[in-house]
Amino acid sequence: MSDYYKMLSVPRNANTEQIKKAYRKLALEYHPDRNQGSKDAEERFKEVTEAYEVLRDPDKRATYDRYGEQGLKGRAGQGGMGGFDFSDAIEVFMRDFGGFSGLEDIFGMRGARGQRTTSRKAQTVRIRLPLTLPEVAHGVTKTLRVALLDECDSCNGSGAQAGTTRTVCSTCGGSGEERHVQRSVFGQFVSVQPCRTCQGEGRVIEQRCDTCRGEGRARRETDIEVEVPAGVTSENFLTLRGRGSVGPRSGPRGDIVVLLEVEDDPRFVRDGPDLIHELPITFGQAALGDEVEVSTIEGTARVTVPAGIQSGDLLRLKGLGLPELNGHHRGDQLLRVLLWTPDELTPEQEEAMRRLRELESPAPKHIRRSAHKGLWSRVKEAFSGG
Q1: Where are the alpha helices (DSSP H) in 219-346?
Q2: Which of 37, 180, 188, 195 is the most buried (most CB within 10 A)?
Q3: Among the CATH numbers 2.102.10.10, 1.10.287.110, 2.60.40.10, 1.25.40.10, which is that of 1-97?
Q4: 263-269 contact pairs (CB < 8 A, 24+)
C-alpha cells in the first residue's frame, strides 16, 4: 500500500503550502520532458501527482488518513478500476503550476511563433449502471444510451458562424496568456495567467454560430458499449477514456465514468467472493438427513444434508460463489442451516412428537458448534435470526 506522505517527503501534519511546495519540486524532477521520456520517471511523476491530488483536498485527505488508500476506492475519479493515469497527472500539474513563469518553455508548451490554441477538454460524464449478481458472476457487456455533447453540424465544432473563422485574440496575440511583471526589492517577478478575453484559447469568435451560440457543441443521444468484468462490487467503477462529450470548440473528448451498482439479491448475502444462503430444514431432516434442492447463482443444485446436522452449521458448495475481480479464484456458496420448529401441529403430529419426547435422549450441556462460525459471525447481522 502506498504512503502518500512518504512519496512527497512531508510529515503527516504538513499544511497545504508544504504539500504543494514538495509536490512542485518532485514534479519538476520527474517530469518526462526533463528525463528524455523515461518510463520510470513518468511513473514516478504520476505517483507523486496522485499523492498530491489526495493530500491537497481536505475531504480526500481525511478519508485517506482514516482508511488508507482502500478508503478512496469508491470515490469516482480516484482509485478504483478507473485509476489515475499520466494524462490526469499532466492536467493536475498544469492546472496548479502552468501559470508559473518559465514552465511552458521548459516543457515545450508553446506553439509556433509563440501562439497557441488551447482547446478545453470536456467535463467527465458520470452514469450509473445497475447489475444483478448473475451478471457479476460472469461479467456482462451492456449497451447504454447516453446524452453527450458532439460537434455542432452547423459550424463543424468551431463555434463561428458558417463562412467565418475564429481570429487571433488581440489581447494576447494568440498566446492565450497574459503576463504581469512586478518589481520588488527581491527582484522581478513574472506571473502568467490565462487571457481574460479568449480564456486561454488564443482565438476569439466575432460571429457566433446561431445553432450552438459559439460552444461548437450540440447535445445528442448515442449508444455506448460497456464491458463489465466478472467479480465487480458497488465500490468499483469503470472509466471510459476519451469516450465522453467533445470539448468546447472541438476540444478533446472527456471521459465517461460508469458507477456500478450491484443490486441486492434476497437469496444471498455476499461475503467477498462467497455467497451465503439460508437453508431451513425440519427436525426430521436434521435427525435423519435428506437430499434437498437449493437456489444457486447458476440456477439450482442438489445438496445432501447429513444426519445429525445442527442448526447454524454451514454446508459448502465449492466454486458456486462469485469470481474474484481480475483473478482466477472463485468463491463458494455457503448454506447456513436453520432448524424450523412448527408452531402448529396436527393431532397426528402432536401424538408423534409426544411419543418421540418419551423416547429421545436429553439434550447435551454443550451443542457442537459449526466449524465455520468465524465466517458466519461476520455476516450474522444480515439475518433476522442473528
Answers
A1: 283-288
A2: 195
A3: 1.10.287.110
A4: 263/130, 263/131, 263/132, 263/133, 265/132, 265/133, 267/295, 268/133, 268/297, 268/333, 269/379, 269/382, 269/383
Rounded CA gap, 97 and 91, in Å? 10
Predicted confidence (pLDDT) per residue in 21-73, tens digit: 999 889 888 876 677 768 888 889 889 999 998 999 888 888 888 878 776 76
Q: Which residue from 256, 263, 5, 308 is spatially nearest to 149, judged by alpha carbons?
A: 256
Rama region for 168: left / alpha / beta (φ>0; ψ in -120 to 50; rest)? beta
**In the chain, which residues fall in CATH 1.10.287.110?**
1-97
**Cα torsion 229, 141, 128, 268: sign:** negative
DSSP state of 79: S
227 contact partners, CB below 8 Å, separation of at least 6: 139, 141
* Three-state secondary-structure class, residue 144: strand
β partners of residue 228: 140
Burial class (CB in 10 A: 0-12, 13-18, 19+), 224: middle
Q: How many helices (H) and strands (E) in the chain? A: 10, 15
Q: How far is CA 240 from CA 155, 236, 369, 379, in A?
A: 27, 13, 49, 34
Q: Are 253 and 245 in contact (CB under 8 A)?
A: yes
- Per CATH, the number for 269-382 is 2.60.260.20
Name which of 203, 225, 222 is nearest 158 in CA terms.
203
- Residue pointed to by grid coordinates 509536490: 23
The whole-number pLDDT of residue 105 equals: 39
Residue range(s) in the chain whose domain bears CATH number 2.60.260.20: 269-382
Give tens-digit pLDDT for 155-214: 988 899 988 988 999 988 888 888 877 776 556 666 778 888 888 888 899 899 999 999
> What is the DSSP annotation of 94-133?
HHHHTTBTTHHHHTT---GGG----PPPPPPEEEEEEE-H
Cα 379 to the chain's mean position, in Å? Answer: 25
Model pTM score = 0.58
- 160: β partners: 208
